[in-house]
Amino acid sequence: MNVKRILLRPLARLAALHAGGQLQAFLDAHRQTAAVQDRLLAELLRCHAETDFGRDHGFSALRSYADFTAAVPVGNYETHRPYMDRVWAGRAEALLPPGQDVRMFSRTSGTTGQPKHIPVTARFLDEMRRGWNVWGLAALNDHKAAWLQPILQISSPIRQLDSPTGKPCGAISGLLAATQKPIVRRMYVVPPAVAAIADPTTRDYVTLRCGVGRDVAFITTANPSSTIKLIETGQAHAERLIRDLADGTLTPPGEISFDIAAVLRFRPKPAKARRIQEGIRRDGQLLPRHFWNIAYLSHWTGGTLRLYARRLAELFGPVPVRDIGLLASEGRFSVPLHDGTVAGVAEIMGNFLEFIPVEEVHKPNPPTFRAHETEVGREYSLVVTNWAGLFRYHMDDRVRVVDRLGASPVFEFLSRGVHTANITGEKITEHQVVEAMHRAAAATGAPVERFVLQGRFATVPFYELRLEPVGADVERLTHAMDEALGELNVEYQSKRSSGRLGGIRPILLPAGALERAEREQIRLRGGRSEQYKHKYLLTDVLE
Fold first, then answer.
1. Helical pair 224-236 and 200-212, crossing angle rounded to 10 deg
2. pLDDT tens, 399-444?
3. CATH code linked to domain 420-542
């Protein structure tokens, strides 16, 4: 038995007790959703009353939810930008309460092309960490084999650039990892410095090299494509990886800085290297089971990201998957409590949540429903108020309520915004397009991960399907997708049947073209790979 693990058990029990208390408090809160949300809103208004935003909107005189909605219209980052820009320049009081100093800025892409900088304070960080603790303990309760076992976390660096006042600006996931409980940090196999490696192939190789010598129990990241690329990088450099493992060395395919190399130390493990060689000879390729006993994987699984499930199963086999929930630079908004579902319980302790029915989202002053007022089966767009200085902030995330926990909604993420394409009145959504491809891929056996569907105007308009070679009959795949889309959208089926809309036409692209285009978009927008969500449906129509 591992001596270190025995010595860590008392600390682990204390950490588990703390997280267990948070989990129980989270579950209890949903028995009184409206009261919990009322108290949170009152606290947020009181604490922010003397901020520039609070004074401009009369927070000190607001006494109810009705007062709040009358004083503060639903907005977005652009309506908050004048205040955010002041915080970015060093005037935290523009949006943040006294004593809530900015620890960092979480950076993400904006809809206008200008990046968003979300201030991260100690209170906001505590709320994010509590949500992760609730999520993590629920997952470990279901996968006890992963308890006190090594963790491979794929995250981005805290500092991508500095604010005008020298605050780090980057990924909040990096700060959460760096400030995690010591007992948990000891389980991480990848030092935080590795996230700063610029070249993605080199970063993936070093990440895998850090983990391959340990018995990693689970992998956590935002985007499942990160997990796939990690293993595929190992497959492309299998001989190098085996040699490094056997010799206790690190010879990545690209250069890394001296500072990063200095924190990486490895011991020779020739026996494990031989085990991997035997696995490759047996299976014909490097697979995670040659070096890890994975209890579960954790990442986003909803919306368009479900298309990665097939490739993950090819690499990892029938490993359980726990969705990490709806979370962004602006906060955590749901907590999945079970494997195999994208649905999570509303995070009502750190966010005051409102829901706009999707059919009314484009109205100038759309109606909003509180968490306890939502209906199972309906689709909404999410509006949040929280400790990041966001008030009635429209996330533009489309969700569907599928269940309830107490009085709170359990909802699943569908898509970023109401992405709707329309040439002849069919009004297809990105969610429908992804589901149609999912069904077509299952019916034809085509391993499709990325594609783009876009309308083209012609004598008989049609949708153009751009994809890379899939090793299957593309015409058959396209026909199956066309039929599936008709099953999912009656207007599409009607337009197709009447001849007003032509069938989907495929266009084959060179291998790797879509990934190269994504990397270029990330570079131009100054974002990060795990934040980028591939657009499967483009709503502008080609001519």
1. 80
2. 999 999 999 999 999 877 656 787 877 878 888 899 999 999 999 9
3. 3.30.300
